[in-house]
Amino acid sequence: MTSIETARGPVAADQLGKVLIHEHVFLMNMEYTLNYRPDFFTDETLDAAAARLNSIKALGYDTIVDLTVLGLGRHVPSLIAVAERTGVNMILSTGVYTFDAVPGPFEFHGPGLMVDAPEPMVDLFVRDITVGMAGTGVKAGMLKCAIEAAGLRPGVERTMRAVAQAHLATRTPITVHTAPKEHTGLEVQRVLVEEGADLSRVVIGHCGDSADLDYLMRLADRGSLLGMDRFGIDFTLTTQARVDTIAEMVRRGYGDRMALSHDCCIGWSDYFPRFDDYRRAMPNHHLHHIHDDVLPLLREAGVSDRQIEAMFVDNPRRLFAG
């Protein structure tokens, strides 16, 4: 049985259980946080994050995929500290989150640049996957990049191709943040295929922000897993519209091509002064929303418990195990 890397070490693929495919424990601008909010790095915040994870473990959810990479404030020691306090498996990620330029350390370093060299991002991503992240020995189990409404900006394309090359070297699955209204998932698939990526090991993220069934079916027909992963972000699409879309996709035979999640912040985010401010601003954006509110609606819409289980268990397991 294939082993999947987590923050506490390898876990057999058949032990992942129910998986939330797209979440974040902490989100931050690292420079801002280190200079102005060192209070975030306390036992209190670590304990609070672990307590929220333990609360969903009690509901039967076993694993989260933390998709915090460069550009979102990945801080591996804090993630490990939370993992040690919870029974939930945490699959950690490597990659770069950018809608435009690459991070500064890569701007002049790479093929054809001022420091002409092979793409440095590939080696860094592969090292995170095969050796460990930030000197901790904890290995990444997912690759991530992004594309937004502006499309395939030079830094976005460079990062995406580097992620694809690291995927080829390690067989690690990929998640891509996309802008579904602009159908950027199709561009993602084109670029990744050009690099030789296996689209069945690719999650097209934020597909739940779209009710365009033709677009979603085009992505799924090429083998990718659709991330219906922003439950609780009500200003992009209502919960009912998200549920109706999933139910119709299931009726059309695509239940094996979707995975559910929230894309929420579990511990803290420096986007908000306090965690309570976050909860007031987005009251449904929390780890219990799918279990408490969404699953009853899916059942009312005709989605069976077995079909729901497939979206939490079978589909993520296939993504990671290959």
TrEMBL record:
The keyword Metal-binding applies. SUPFAM superfamilies: Metallo-dependent hydrolases. InterPro entries: Metal_Hydrolase, Phosphotriesterase. The keyword Hydrolase applies. The modification N6-carboxylysine is found at residue 144. Keywords: Hydrolase, Metal-binding. Belongs to the metallo-dependent hydrolases superfamily. Phosphotriesterase family. This is Phosphotriesterase-related protein. The lineage of its organism: Bacteria, Pseudomonadati, Pseudomonadota, Alphaproteobacteria, Sphingomonadales.
